[in-house]
Amino acid sequence: MQIKVTKAMWFYGLINVLLLIALVLWVFQKNQTVEIVSPQLALNKLQCVSYAPYYKKGDSPLIEGMWIKPSQIEDDLKLLSTISHCVRTYSVSQGMDYVPEAAAKLGMQVYLGAWIGWTDTDNVLEIKYAAQVANAYPETVKALIVGNEVFLRQEQDAEAMRTYFALAKSLTSTPITYADVWEFWLKHKNIADYVDFHTIHILPYWENNPVGIDE
After folding, report:
1. Angle at 48 (CA atoms; ends 45, 142), nearest 5 degrees
2. Where do runs of H (alpha helix) occur along 57-119?
3. Predicted confidence (pLDDT) at residue 4 exceeds the cutoff of 70
4. pLDDT-based confidence at residue 1 (cuts at 50, 70, 90)
5. CA-to-CA distance for 125 and 172, rounded, in angstroms?
6. Which pairing describes strands 176-181 and 141-148: parallel, antiparallel, or unpaired?
7. Among 6, 47, 113, 144, which one has the highest count of C-beta atoms within 10 angstroms of its own C-beta?
8. 142 and 111 in contact (C-beta within 8 Å)?
9. Which residue has the higher pLDDT, 27 or 5?
10. Which letter, b or e, does each residue of 92-122 get, where b requires 16 or more Cβ atoms within 10 Å of its Cβ?
11. Which letter does DSSP use for residue 5 in this model?
12. pTM of the full predicted structure?
């Protein structure tokens, strides 16, 4: 049986071939390497950056027994020192107590975090050790951050936090602060007088009630 090829069939066949060629060229072009533009900082260096070293596969602060090696912290801070003179941490456990020592070698400063969670016993131990580390590096540790977004997570109330602030103040002369999203500072104004300054998180993308950019 013979199939008669008409001009229309030739025409549509040609169109399909051209479309296929165009598709191949488009895919080829989209898969070419491109030069990435290096970010340009508005200032010479950022004032300070948060540092949490859990970026390797399987790393997590929630893993019991997790430990960050001093060599990793030193390598991380050497890299961060190229963009900032300061780092902020969230805990002194899991090897993070080494950060002030590593920072001191590089002439960096640290906002040292003491993690506050559900368990009072753990919180007290964390504050005592954080104060000890802060006292050991008074020229490096700019402030002790007692708790990070504790109210947001609803893990402690204002009375408990005032007790933790008082404990920290009794153990160190390092300035004390607390860090949380701005709306929780407004909800708990009665803790303001118990810290030396406020550390306020402004995170538009994650706000419970996002505020328009014009505001």
Report:
1. 125
2. 70-80, 99-106
3. no
4. low
5. 14
6. parallel
7. 144
8. yes
9. 27
10. bbbbbbbbbbbbbeeebbbbbbbbbeeeeee
11. P
12. 0.77
